[in-house]
Amino acid sequence: MELLTEETVVDYLINKGVFTHDEEITVEVLTGGVSNTVLAISTQSKNLVLKQALPALKVAELWEADPRRAIVEADALKLFHSLNPEIVPELVFVDPIEFVVIMKRVPLISRVWKSDLLEGIYRPQVGRTLGTTLSRWHNYGVMNPSAHKNFMEDTLFDQLRIDPFYRFVANKNIDLRQSIQRLIAELESDKSTIVHGDFSPKNFMVTEDDHVYILDFEVMHVGNPVFDLAFIMAHLLCKFFHAPNANEAAEISNIAKTFLNAYLEHSQIAQTLVLHTALIALARVEGKSPVNYLSQSEQEKIQLLTKKVLLDQKEEDVMTLFDVSKR
């Protein structure tokens, strides 16, 4: 596997027939991800994004991951662009040998939703769109089992989610191991639908008029839909604790509630959602890939709340985690 760089990618693209020798090609390194080389490729008529899956993620802890996830992402882009072309970018090219995926770039005016949330820009309509879309995708997976065949990939989900989020935290917290193992068993025993696996604010691009684009499908798998719900709720919970004051925390709580209500209009939510959300939020502090914006005090508050929830094992409303009085 040859890792592409800003210097070598143009020759690669021409050799693969994506571009011709007479096209003027501009390359820009895009930052923000830890699992891929990401390059913006543009000509006078095309704006594309190239992703090449890395065999080891760029985090402090050793975290190896099979680059075959690029093939999973290509299959997911084809499927979900056909279902929601207004939300999912179009696949342009896939190289299953060098694990490269090229897709059309979303409009340059769009912003990463994570950045908006951290900057105090709150758009509840984005939460509603995400809840509605995720519910429809989960329902599609349940109703169309023939679509599962390209995503029956337990190894990647284990490498990228179960091990770094669930087992890693369990190994650090002996008193939580039993409850975490039950959550792992719940995920591993359910093969009911197609799960995105990285349903996170960093993977949503939004415009000023609240149009949403959903990216990063490389952890797509057939599994338990509760994981997608918990993954986004845990990210919102971290931002809830990071909010500078009670009013802004309430804004984030409202977005979380709006997202859940939109999902509930078409689907049901597992009673264990609160436990998975608490565990993943704890993993954003103690796991292999902690978020980089939480202060020491904010981390300690999240640890205190989530460990209590996991120890108590109460299957209550997940919105109890977003109680402003607990901040």
What are the main properties of this structure?
single chain; 327 residues; alpha+beta; Phosphorylase Kinase, domain 1; Aminoglycoside 3'-phosphotransferase, Chain: A, domain 2; 2 domains; 3-stranded antiparallel β-sheet; 10 strands; 45% helix; globular
In short:
The chain has 327 residues and is α+β, with helices and mostly antiparallel strands. Helix content is 45%, strand content 13%.
Layout of helices and strands, plus pairs?
Elements: H1 9-15, E1 26-29, E2 36-42, E3 47-53, H2 69-83, E4 91-95, E5 100-104, E6 111-112, H3 113-118, H4 124-143, H5 154-172, H6 177-189, E7 193-195, E8 204-206, E9 212-214, E10 221-223, H7 226-242, H8 246-264, H9 273-286, H10 296-312
Antiparallel strand pairs: 1-2, 2-3, 3-5, 4-5, 6-8, 7-10, 8-9
Helix pairs in contact: 4-8, 5-6, 5-9, 7-8, 7-9, 9-10
Task: Tell me what the structure shows.
The chain is built from ten helices and ten strands. It is of the alpha+beta class and 327 residues long. The chain has two domains: 9-104, Phosphorylase Kinase, domain 1; 111-326, Aminoglycoside 3'-phosphotransferase, Chain: A, domain 2 (Alpha-Beta Complex), CATH 3.90.1200. The strands form three sheets. It has a five-stranded antiparallel sheet with strand order 1-2-3-5-4, covered by helices on one side. The relative contact order is 0.12. The mean pLDDT is 92.
